[in-house]
Amino acid sequence: MNTRSSYDVAIVGGGIAGCASAYYLARRGLSVALFEKGRIAGEQSGRNWGFVRQQGRDPLEIPMMMACIRIWRGLEAELEADIEWRQGGILYLTEDEAGVAKYEAWLDKARAFQLDSRLLSAREVAKLLPGMARDWDAALYTPSDGQADPVKTTTAFARAAARHGAEIHTGCIVEGIETAGGQATGLRTEAGEVKAGAVLIAAGAWTGPMLRNLGQILPQLRVRSTVLQTTPAPELTGLGVWCDEFGFRQGRDGSFTMGAGDWVDHDIEADSLRHFLAFRPAMKSISRKPDLHLGWPFIRDLVSFVDGPGSLRRRLRRDRVLDPAPEPGKLDHSLGAFHALFPQFKDVKIAKSWAGVIDVTPDEMPVFGEAPGLKGLVIATGFSGHGFGMGPIAGKLMAELIAEGRPSLDLGAFRFTRFSEPRAAAALHSTP
After folding, report:
1. Are 359 and 205 in contact (CB under 8 A)?
2. Which pLDDT tens digit goes with each residue over 259-273?
3. What span, in angstroms and rounded, lies between the C-alpha atoms of 82 and 94?
4. Is pTM, for the whole model, over 0.85?
5. What is the pLDDT of residues 408-432, one digit of tens each?
6. Which helix (H) or strand (E) holds 101?
7. Domains of the chain, earliest start first
8. Cα separation of 177 and 385, whole Å?
9. Are 186 and 384 in contact (CB under 8 A)?
10. Nearest to 33 by CA among 56, 54, 14
11. Which candidate, 319, 334, 193, places its Cα nearest to that of 258?
12. What is the pLDDT of residues 145-157, one digit of tens each?
């Protein structure tokens, strides 16, 4: 790897937040180097459903996502790439009064932002999704929401960043963050040391362990989400559709990308115990519904304690790309629920399947800003399963924060230190 010895900004992580940050920083004329241990979009940024939504988000996130939708509309022209952007809307289905009440409560909170979200009747839902084998009481609908291809979008940001002078280094592990006098000064990579005026950590599920080596405790857990892509089918809808049982979107080629609604898997690890108290208050309100597994990951973590400080480096080398196996039961459930709802697509089969690792915070909202006590160490992580759609605005705001010292939107609600501060009752949480 040919690399300079010093940069204005060094970025850890080749997901959409890291690549978008590299792009917006390079456009400002800063020297930027991004380091990814595996490949661009190799982990969750390339393994999600591809939803881009304002709908269902915590009200604190809505202004950010409204600004982000404006970016998405012109992103293909800006990045000079086909990312399969489609502003077809997002639809959340419900078949009971409790679901209707939940959506009405969210609309009450979202009304102040003048979103185009509204509650649809059963008849309106049937018109949007013809051929359904059952009726729904209502649906939450936001026509200005959309979808895009996760891998194409993240890769497009990386390529555009490189065109503007950023260096994109894949297959290169960042073994540690260098600091001196309360200031981030660079990175230790497996190819050597790199000096930087600022460091951005956008490493997804790896962010917490990297920060812990600096004495910074970020409550962050990993959950696994199983996803499948079907064989192509005639066009059904340009909507992204979600209900308790499953969710899906239809791509340009006619295939459906779908997953099992809110249901995810959590492998109990040392962090599950380490952060138990931080997550305990949120357990009743958290939107994700995890199936718990106790097995090899927990044993491996116990061994890591014995290994000492070098354990993270060994884990990074072993898992250059986190590639967990999909859960067969969730694949069967998702496709079975889809076939039951749309019997006209009974011949649609699974073409491929995968799983991704989602990093989750106790309030299911991201962390943006400087790490406490370490000037120049900026964090963009904790997207909790809804970070793909937020990726462009996250990159823009991180570039503003690093280059100007102040982002164009208030990020106070997403500060690192909120987890150690007294907090009010949990906010309204989002659904995926």
Report:
1. yes
2. 998 889 988 888 888
3. 34
4. yes
5. 999 999 999 999 887 533 333 434 3
6. helix 97-110
7. 6-420 (3.50.50.60)
8. 26
9. no
10. 14
11. 334
12. 999 999 999 999 9
